[in-house]
What does this fold into?
Amino acid sequence: MELTQLWFAGVARQAHAVRSGEVTARDLVAGHLARIERVDPQLNAFRAVFAEQALAEAEAADERKSRGEDLPLLGVPIAVKEDIAIAGLPTTKGTNAARTPEPADSAIVARLRKAGAVIIGRTRMPELGLWPYTESGWAGPTRNPWSPTHSPGGSSGGSAAAVAAGLAAAAIGTDGAGSIRIPSAVTGLFGLKPQRGRVSLAPDREVWGGLVVAGPITRTVLDWALVADQIHGAAPGDLHVAHPPRTSFSEAATTDPGTLRIGVSLRPWGPGIPIADEVRDAVQDTAALLTDLGHDVVRIDPPLRDLVASTQFAVRYLHNAHLARAGMEFPDLVEPRTRAVAELGRRLPRGLVRWARKDDAALTAYANRIFGSVDVLLTPALTRPPIRVGEWDHRNVVAALLAASHYTTFLQIWNVVGNPAAVVPAGRTSSGLPLAVQLVGRRHDECTLLSVSAQLERARPWADRTPSGLGHAN
It folds into this structure.
């Protein structure tokens, strides 16, 4: 395989190429670095590229291979979102408000390095991860490789743009209200928000009161599983610990799911939220495909306590935005829109905040009642096709927050209750932009989601499609 083809080959294929001697880790990483230098000025996916360090790590990987070492991710270039701690760098979180270098790698980065991965760079996010797009006044917008006039989503937009453009084999994202699923959905990638507590967020005990989890963004289901197998697990001090998976994620991704009962819901989490026709069609087409694959697919629209649950989420979101800004070293350096969101959170009555945070167990039990009758829930990922760069710039903060909430209505509740949820590519819009659907699983059950997602991938492949205009044809 030519090196240029390896850019889009993903984790499993790149790891095999290094392992088999088809390519050296140094050549693989050097090729990615050259591609980043050429392509990223168009996309703005990276906050920092670790060129010298990555080449040194790649050379070390080649030496390890020559000594007979066989690590799962040896020599594979992986990018990391800028809210994940890397030793020697401040954890910037999309801002210029952090200056003090971290004393040590996060658990995620340490585990990636232990598995042989090469950390190739740090990817961009919106300030404090507040938006479903990746833009800021000082850094400019990050752009979607499929269409530079569109956003790659957020808040893990840089991570998704990097993988979709062939700048990294995989990237790590975080998800507090859809921030892995949104960018995966709009860039044609596979993204799975793991169960709360599946991947340690150390050195943090928890992030955003338990709403935030971390996980890979990848080209294929197996790629996700290979990376997640290396980074999952608790660390001392974690407030949340998931139940052990019933198999390795890699085994789940290569195992037929059997016959499942799959519920389909097109009911938004809140009244009066429209769903675009192309989004609805993608869900219905996926439901038909799952039926053809032998599953028992039924329409089910569970009541989700719309007003109570959505109000709880909004209060927690705003309160956490306030805490996140206050926790930065230089909180006055964040942008006016970020300050405005944080100020809304600061002004919330304390009693309202306590109320919003106290009902997790009841809401979790209520939302999970659906899994008494189905194994997996199929919904839209987003309510409309990808938004354009700068589309909501003219709106005031409250209007922009409302638009974002409507856009991501199917995603947020699963952060509140903690269940795993995946987005799976599901065709294209009439203008060629990616569409996706969401699959939600029982608590602690990423394995079923991986098996079903891989089955969909075999039936309706997506990873062989790559963006044009970035040095590689469709």
Observations:
- The radius of gyration is 21 Å.
